[in-house]
Sequence to fold (842 residues):
Amino acid sequence: MKLFGVFAIFTVLILSSCATREEVDKLSLISAVGIEKNPDSDYKIIIQYLMPNKSQEPIPVTKEVEGLTIYEANKKLNEFLPRKPYWSHNSVILISEDMAKDGVRSQLDFFRRDTEMRQDMLVAITENPSKILYNLQKQQLPGETLKLIAREASERNGLGEVSTIHKVYQNLFFKKPFLTITHILLDGENPRIDGVSIFNKDKYITTIKEDEAKGFGLLNLKKNYSSVTINCLDNENRKITFELTNKKKRTDSFVNNLGNFEINLSLEFDAKMAENYCIKNMWKPDTIKELEKSLNKKIKELATKTIEHSQKNVKIDYFGFGNLLYLNNPKEWKEIEGEYKNVYKNANIKLKIKTRITQSGAVH
Amino acid sequence: MEKLSTSLEKNFKFFQQRLNHCEDVEFRILNPYKEKGNEIIFMYCENIIDEMMVFESLFEKIIQHYPKKNEKIDQSILKDVFPTTSIFFSDDVQEIMSYLFYGFCIILFPDSSKAGLVCYSKKSFRQVGEPQSEVVIRGPREGFVEVIRTNIAMVRSKLPNANLKVRLKKIGTESKTFTAVIYMENKAPLDTLQKVLTRLDEIDIESIHESGSIERRLEEHPFSLFPQIVHTERPDKLVSDVMEGRIAIIVDGSPHALILPSTFKMFLQASEDYYERYWLGATLRVVRIFAFLIALLLPSFYIGITTFHLEMLPTELALAIAMQKEGTPFSSFFEALLMEVFFELLREAGIRLPMPVGSAISIVGGLVIGDAAIQAGIASPAMVIVVALTGIASFAIPKYSFAIPLRILRFGLMIVTSFLGLFGLMIAIIAIFIHITSLSSFGVPYLELSFSSFKEMFNFVRPSQLKNKIKYKESEYQ
Fold:
């Protein structure tokens, strides 16, 4: 019996033959990848990989390969790479706008399906991925840098969202008829997050920027430290800036008696005074109340602008109100599912915003 | 000849023959009147006896009290010479022989089959000093020595109580080594005590030189890698364990006392845990559990992650490891194996060598393992950190005997992990866990898995009595 045990252990060990074993020095870590349309074959992928080097910091190397599918292109990498391309540490997938117009699902499939893929890669839309990647070559960890930029922009500035591949797929398979992905712009030599790309199903439509993007952030992001600037109460030319901190969101969507889709949105913020050019004494309760009112108005303005944009211009519910109805009341959702686009266009959205100035920032 | 005969001449001849070539045994004949048949013969082993005392008190006093000429000398003279000292008589040759070598002076009388035995034992021994293997910062600084009488005295002086029983046994067919079984009568479970005593009687061994040689014969699972009997050099630890109802065994010639039954957590305890303030003990226990895990798992975990699951690491760390690994010729597994073997060699060499040479070895070894291996491209710096950390962690375990299974298992785990990755490691951990849970020590489960023992483990409560912990009856664990 004991002999059999020993035999079994050795058999297991030897038959496994070190499957999936890879030594670190036989791998080249891929840091970022860009996908572009190619007139000749289906895909042109731009791959940025790191060559670990004993004496100095690793240098990113950028290569372009073509292929019918991304996996084919991946295999072609080994025509010039002495090591196995290792995708687990890839942190950014850049998809060109014209590629995204045909739908992003097919391009993301490889990253979702292949083994050892980390699902926290950032998916981003940009006009020209190769330009961004070539510009990033001076960075040590190009992919990681881009991902961090996206995270900081969304958390600190309330701009766009960190659309990891996991989130993208979650949205794709949920009852949301929309998808939002971070948009990156090459500003001179540096990449910059400038807004959120809106998708119908998985097809790229447009990108919302600036005020609309900020409104989107206010309405959609969980964590958000964006700033709002309003005019002083006494002087129209002077400004006062608040940072929004704590956010509480309550959304309620239903179909009312008349058959109209109705959404009640209430947002609560805590605001911290960040910068103040006003002269008036700030720490009187009445003044603070006035300021809060003024803040409410400004936030409502921003949010309404985005909502109007979604209802009138794009005609797509990129906030996911429909999804909420599906979760709360699937029967009602089923009734309007087919013509949701029209329903949403005429939906009645009521906004209720409440701000509390918690830190008035008194300076002597 | 089993009993002495009545003829002094015969007895003397017999002993001379039996002790032929035992040149450390001295025979002295006392016959002041040169009368045949009226002499007495002294027999003693000169090196283990206090010769000065023999001359001053025994010989001189006997001569003073020697009967007058023509009067027969007999045993009663000893009563006159030593009215108070313990003297006893025996006619059993075996007994006389053994007492001779315990440092007794044997006195043979004419026309008597009884020999008188007087104790003049004086063995030279090491001074009581600080225990070498269990150093504490706070706590008594005395440790056991090689002489059993001193050791028992140390225990007795800590527990001057009639409930503390010391049962002496002689173990070893040739060596007849004194072995003391120490326990508290009102605390030790009777079954366990009986079991220990029968096991001790069943031991079939020629000679004992260390308590370790009976330790393996007392264990229920002698082939398990994990030790099931704690040994200690500290009388205070022994007493505190005896107070819990455990049974201690002290063997003559060994400064290591055995404590049984012992469980897993006792190997991770130091006596200081109870002397220092509560929080220190509780924290150090946690640290030692981490040390246990690191000493066992770290190299295999490192191999598993770097060769199978690189995606688990943060990108920066993965890249740093990749950079360090650049240019080294071997696989992670072989590198780890090499460095671990280096380290074991160094440790082994360092222990056996005398102190001055040992420090030289540690310098050379430190350079070889630390720096030169990296310079030569044999190992990566991360691997050196892993090996060093593993070594330090295994030193952090209070009981040396408990670090040994970890050192051996570490290699097995490394091999399994190099084949099967972290899955293999997990399988091996589960196998080890199953093995530990299946062990028991005299009816006490080795890995006490209960909430109360968990509280004890982290020093929340004083350890409870042993009789509450026995889970199996004797018939079940035999």
Notes: Chain B is about 50% helix and 10% strand.
